[in-house]
Structure prediction request, 398 residues.
Amino acid sequence: MHPENHSPISSPEEALRAFREFARTTLLGHDEEFDSGAEPPLELYRPLHKQGLLNWWLPTEYGGAGLGLADSVDIVSELAYADAGSAFTLLISVLSSSMVSLYGSPELKEEFLTAMTRDGGYSAALGSEREAGSELINLTTTLTRRGDHVVLNGEKMFSTNSGFADYLIVFAKSAGEREKGASYHAVLVPRGTPGARVVKRWDMIGLRSAGTYQVSFTDCAVPSGNVLNGPGLKIIEVGLNSSRILIGAIALGVARRIRDICLDYAITKPLGGHKLIENAVFASKIGQMEMQIEVMRNQCLAAAREYDDVMAMPDPPAEFLRRGALRSALTTKMFCGQTGWQIATVGSEMFGGLGYTTDLPISKYLRDIRAVTIVEAGDDVLRELVFRRFVLPPNRRI
Prediction:
C-alpha cells in the first residue's frame, strides 16, 4: 500500500531527482536559519512525505519506497550539500526502523512501519549513557519483566529525533543480572508512553537544525511483545551498519559544498594581478579535494552495496546477526569523517582570516562535518573495534 495522496516514485533515479530538487529549492541558501539552534524545521520536510519519500528506505509492503542503501548514498549527499543537520534528521530514522524491520514481530512492523509511511513519522534509537558512553555493555538502563509487560528505568544521553519521534528503540539490560551474564534487549517505546520523558535538547555546535535529546525512563511499561527478537547488543550493531554508512555520505555532501564555495570564491578573489582560480597552488588543492570526494563516494557506495547484498539474502536477520558490525560500514564512517575534515580544513584556509569568522558559511560546514567522526562512536572506538574484529588473528578476536 502507498499512503494516501502520495505519488509513488517509479525508480531510484526519479527519487534522486526529487531529492536534488527539494534540497536545492527548499534547503539551500538557509544556512543562517539552520545554524541558529531553532527547533528542527520538520514542516519543511512535509513535501517529501507527500511524495512518499520521507522514509525512503522503508519496505514497500509497509508503504515505503523500498530504496536500497546504495540508492541512499547520493540522496543523503544531496541533502547534506544543502544542510547537514537536515540530512541527519532525515536519515537517522534508518537506524531504529531497520532494527524493527529486521527483528520486530509482524505486529510491530505492521503497526509502526506502516504508520511511518502513512503519517510521515520519525523514530529514534537510544543507546548512549553518561557513564557507559559508546560501550553499551556497561549501560545501566534496566528492563524488568512484570506480567505481560516490561518496565524500563534509566536515562539516555544523546538521541537524535527522540524529542518528536513516533517511537523509540531503547537499549536496556535485564535487571538483577550480574554484569558478565547480563542479557541486553532492544525495546520499542511508543511516543507518549507514561514514564518516558525528554529531559532536554542538547545545544550542539554543529548539525544545529537537527534535534538531539537526553531522555529519562521511570517505571516506563510497554507490552512484552515490544521487545525485539534477538540479543540487544547484536541488534544495535546491525542497525548501526546502515546509519554509519549514510553518516559517511553526510561528509561527502558537505565536502562537495566546500569545494563549490571555494571555486566560487576563487573566481572573483584577486591574487598577484590575477584571479585565485588561475593560481596553480589553488588548482592543486581543489584537484586533491576532487580526488578525495571521488574516493569517499566510491567507499560509501561499496559499503552500501555490501549491506544491500545481505538484505537480498534468504535470511537477512540471521545473516546480519552472524556478521554484526560490517567492516565496510566502520571504515566508511571513519574514512569519510577524517577525509571530510581534511577538506574542510583546507577549504577554511583558502579564505584567509575570513575563514576563521562567522561571516562566511565555511564555519558552519567545519562544525557540521566534525560530527561525522564523533556520532555513533568516535574514531578511537571504531579503530579499536576494527582491530579486534578484523585485524587480530581469528583465534584472538572478540
